[in-house]
Amino acid sequence: MDPALRPSRPALVVAAPHSGSGKTIITLALMAALKARGLGVQPFKVGPDFIDPGLHGRVTGRISRNLDGWMLSRATNRALFERWAGRADAAVVEGVMGLFDGYDGLSEAGSTAEMAKWLGLPVLLVVDARSMARSAAALVLGFTRFDPDLTFAGVVFNRVGSPGHLEYLNQAMRQSLPDLPVFGGIPRDPRLELAERHLGLVTAEETRLTPEHQRDLAEIIERHLDLDRLLGVSRRSSEQASEPAREMRPISAPAAAADRAAAPVVIAVARDEAFCFYYQDNLDLLAEQGAELITFSPLRGDRLPPDASALYLGGGYPEVHAERLAANQTLLRQLRDAAARGLPIYAECGGLMTLSRFIETAPGRRRPMAAVLPFGTRMLERRKALGYTEVELLAPTPIGPPGLKIRGHEFHYSEIVAGADTNADPVADPSAAVDSGADPAAGLIRAYRIQARSGRAVPPEGYLSGSVLASYVHLHWGSAPQAAAHFVAHARAWRERNRRR
Predict the structure, then answer these.
(1) Nearest to 50 by CA among 351, 373, 275, 365
(2) Active site positions, annotated
């Protein structure tokens, strides 16, 4: 049997009734405890999140992979799990939101429950027990009976107030659910808190998850959770474990033989505290197509890698670091020059903000950016957009031809604005955002038709200007692997054109 399919390897999904239950910190603590026991732990995250996977990687030393039931097919999710879990001693999958929450209120699409069933994994339910005793058993009873096809490893109670509180919880569980294991109760502890900001938890690049903190997390788990018993029941179902590997399709797009034989083409990837939102599978797809990925840090004064034939500007927190970005005038000038020379540039969310004329972090406080795009952006106190998004390309772009559909996710607190004054109105059509402060020739093509989840009409997005494509949407190229192939082909064509000059 393929070692990736061995049912004896510990593997489970960590889920919760709702966000804020402590799911992420319990997941990190569990990973730290397993690693402290000498196990190689492969982390996964259900959903489109970027921050939690970064934290997983900090603890396990392995790249965490996103699994998503809406952006990616069942076969692709299965293939991703088998490929990476098979290289570890144990696999831990952190869920998203509440266990049954997903794309909408009518189906399990995109939910943690759906993914657990697809992968044949048992669920460890993390229940926030603050201000609850017997009621906690009623909550667990409802969750375990809501979907009879879902398998539960058991329950761990979080934020338990005292040993007496835990005993009340155990009494209620023994009476109502005697066959469901309760693995323990995690006490309230300041070490089990993670700093947050407007897009969620502070990223791995800035977190305090030091080796000492990780040891503390492991110690808490070993003391308050029956880890041996949990590992004993954390096994894949025999049906899923024996599913033929040939039914699973990996994420890939075939590269032409000539492209495979060609020298790698360099794609520059901005990577630091301001640019840290990337799906690892997007980067892997680029590498599989013959790209050599070279990272650089705009915050640390880096310039564009001199041999770059394309640029990938991911999302992150440019607004938090706007002053430092604005200080790197050499790089901002290079971005303008690269766009003028036709360098293929793909930018998402924070990357779009960096390519704009400015970032307004507060009224009257603007920081100049690259001015590749003829509009500015400003931060809002309330969230501007959140949700899954499918885009259809309406024009030839660096990531694909017209008609290609790619799925992704949108989550941001900023909006596009035009005009030189600080009271500029938001711009529904950025192609009309050119004013006296921008080059009138820098018109934009809106290259994305947006398929809204609600069915309401949404203006086209995806701002195409020459060789530059920028958008607020974070696309997962696993939903359309040819996007990576197209981007690498554009980079290779740009390199060849410039060699002949």
Answers:
(1) 275
(2) 349
